[in-house]
């Protein structure tokens, strides 16, 4: 952002009043609650009566201070300039320290409250919600309820949107079980991309980068506004090797020896989005690689956090985080700031979800366990069936969700049927189990 203004004399100005707050120009100006961009400063913030600076002058001051605290990254823009990161973000160090402290033991109380099977259920919930939201961010046209039921029942996808969701879900599972133990290379990038786009791309678009003549752009689906014109394919092919080295911790920031893994995962997310190497699936690939890097570096709890669910609440802000980073002197801090806030919000949502679940369990489980002698698996099934009268289960679904043998699953379901909680219906080769009115009475 360039203004034709004479640089203000900072020797005569020690502080600035902005939106009712006073900030010292040499320190406190970095304590804004967010990493301000010019449009917000220009249109939403009010200067105090004692401020001698115009907004344009204040912006130049802020930009100058950010520049002094910035480090360049290995991420090269198509204009042959490197993206940079401001080393000061509000409360960033405190947040990263909190994550590191919890990652070594409990994750915000998770280990204290749940056993291994419950953890698996939370993991399955996390990747299911991430798969749905990540696909919806790229145009999957379905509701959360329909998508979740589709994944739970294990039926085959019926359309393009369901293929997107299933592919992302399977990719997330593969990251956790396999890919997190591998170093990144070009073959792995192609392999992940093929998994994400299975049955959604033409054969000649798989395992190869896009072509310049494809004229791919990133734009608002409603307004048509173009957010990003990806670089030429030769540039992509040249820079993908630097991306791989950075992802494998071979190269790092040039004048700072350490980047926190969470920040680095966000940078990898941005880098793929910026290069946009494929005809389709770039956003999902970027977010998948974000998870790959964190799980590879033992940030295991991120498997429980469906970050795309909170990004989906503000998709335009997500797009603009890319735009500001590219257009405002290649300042990647905007994208990092946005993602850190979404991670914080996702953790808050997860903590609230845990508290709600444990409160519900403590109240209803006691009655069902002691009055009807039901185990936890059976109780959870009844809760699921009670949440919607159209819900059902099958033997294979029940086995997969609870990670149990066929014999155990049959025993559980037969007991519930004998106690009049379930009614079974045979449709074709499959037996479907539906809830009865007794379930509703049990949860009153």
Question: Can you offer a commentary on this structure?
Answer:
There is one protein chain. With 444 residues, the chain is mainly alpha-helical. The chain has 18 helices and nine strands. 54% of the residues lie in helices and 9% in strands. The chain has a three-stranded antiparallel beta sheet with strand order 7-9-8. Strands 1-2 form a two-stranded antiparallel sheet. Strands 3-4 form a two-stranded antiparallel ribbon. A hairpin with a 6-residue loop joins strand 5 (218-219) and strand 6 (226-228). The longest helix is centred in the last third of the chain and has 39 residues, at 333-371. The radius of gyration is 25 Å and the shape is globular. Mean pLDDT is 85; it is low at 1-6.
What is the gist of this entry?
The protein is mostly helical and 444 residues long.
